[in-house]
Amino acid sequence: MCMTHTAEALTAITPVSVSAVSFDRFGSLLAQHPRVAAQFLLNVQRERVALMDQLSAMRRTSAQSRLAAFLTDLLERLGRLAAVKEDSFTMRLTQEQIGDVLGLTSVHVNRLLRDLEELGLIARDRQVVRILDRQALVRLAVRPHRTLRTDLPWLPPHR
Length: 159
Prior knowledge:
about 5% strand, 2 domains, 6 helices, mainly alpha, 3 strands, Arc Repressor Mutant, subunit A
């Protein structure tokens, strides 16, 4: 860790299993498997870029655009986990939690979700959200298009 104390707290919204790994053991893992260390570096970089995009969006885009970006990002992430069926996914976050991410009140999130429904971009049925017009939602999101590199010849080889 680069700090003497934890910089943030995480809250799980679904059941999770957590295991503590000592710094010594973690350091040994990275020394013995440099590819794992490089993958950690890449993941930290991806998270940094996503955070910078989010911070930039907070003051430069409308609340509706931020919600559209949030929904498209969630759709992409859940899609990689095979948790999207026919552009539908289960929204496990409350409107208050979404508001915390986007810097909005839960009342405003509710109003924006209704607006997206009225525009024909999404449909909701309890916790299930269905994206009806992905292209229009992406246009509304006004977020930078980021393509992850897959050609990384500099990565250390598998051991």
